[in-house]
Amino acid sequence: MPRNDPPRPVPRQPPATLVLTEPLPEAGMRKLAERPELRVLVLPAPTEAALAHVLPQSDAAAMVMERPALSASLIGRAPRLRVVCRMGAGYDHIDVAALTQRGIPLATTGAANARTVAEHALYLMLALAKRGPALDRAVKSGAWPRGFGSIELAGRRCLLVGYGRIGREVARLAAALEMQLAVFDPYVPRDAMERHGFAHVAVLADGLREADFVVLACALGPETRGLINVDGFAHMKPGAFLVNVARGSVVDEAALVAALDE
Length: 262
Description:
Order of helices and strands: EHEHEHEHEHHEHEHEHEHEH
Radius of gyration: 25 Å
Strand content: 15-25%
Strand order of the largest sheet: 2-1-3-4-5
Oligomer: single chain
Low-confidence stretches: none
Structural class: alpha/beta
Shape: elongated
Number of helices: 11
Mean pLDDT: 90
């Protein structure tokens, strides 16, 4: 006769450790608290030293980070690491090659701040076009300048360098002000820009020659580090404005200083 042995209990898995380099907003922390299968560990300070201290001890299965840099050495200290999430769009401070070698996916929250960054780009464009900071200083010093040389955005040509989430938002806002939009992004098909009514630029130098405003909204990588350099500034026409809402290293700083001096 068959034996009716009681089922063996399934061994309970220990909770997976989720490392946060900084606390999430209150709503996010409440969501994590509702997950008993997670042990949430928040670093006392978002530094490489703090990560180096915690990762070997925590058996971290996942990380959500804004900063610091996540190097191959730090990744090697987390043998159970299964996923990394970056709070933001850029991931230039994360060793993607080391993650790829381990088969660890990297997620980003690029859409979360796209509208905010795009509005900031538009704010900078308006500040330059209307000479806002200079006029603010003048009025506070008792002056009331006239004929101060402001321009309108309508009808001006705006070159967008980068057509990701942020670039598309900048294009939409600038188009609402009746600017003429052109886009340079070698990773986006031409028809993706043209179906929105924006001109496609195949060669960056050609776009720079025509632009009244150049807005940088591209990711930082080997191809874009120092993208706007001595040659780039040489192609820009006198009086053009440069707005950078990408990483600072997309612009060659020494070349920028030289261009301003000239």
